[in-house]
Design a protein that fits this description.
Helices cover 45% and strands 16% of the residues. It is of the alpha+beta class and 94 residues long. The protein has one domain (2-89). Strands 2-1-3 form a three-stranded antiparallel sheet, covered by helices on one side.
């Protein structure tokens, strides 16, 4: 009975850790996939070079683009910039 309870707790902890990691991994475009039996994805890198620097020293894994990453939306042009662009075209924006 004791083993069963410990097993259930271990499975619940592993599932909770996996959910937390999946949510946090969406912020970075590059992941290091650890080459062992676990196959853990460590998505915490802004550039491929950062990922490579972490993966190479101990030949821990390989780097791959994060399939869940969504780039932040681009900011819209400011109204002053739009007026300047319209003047160059010869249109009157007002």
């Amino acid at each position: 009975m004791r083993r069963l309870i410990l097993g259930v707790i271990a499975v619940a902890a592993a599932m909770a850790a996996g959910l937390a990691t999946a949510g946090a991994g969406n912020r970075y475009p590059w992941c290091m996939v650890v080459q062992n039996r676990s196959g853990i994805w460590a998505c915490a890198f802004d550039t491929f070079e950062q990922c490579l620097a972490e993966a190479r020293p101990a030949n821990q894994g390989f780097c791959i683009h994060n399939p869940f990453y969504q780039a932040p939306p681009r900011a819209a042009a400011s109204p002053a910039r739009a007026r300047k662009r319209a003047r160059r075209r010869g249109a009157n924006p007002r």
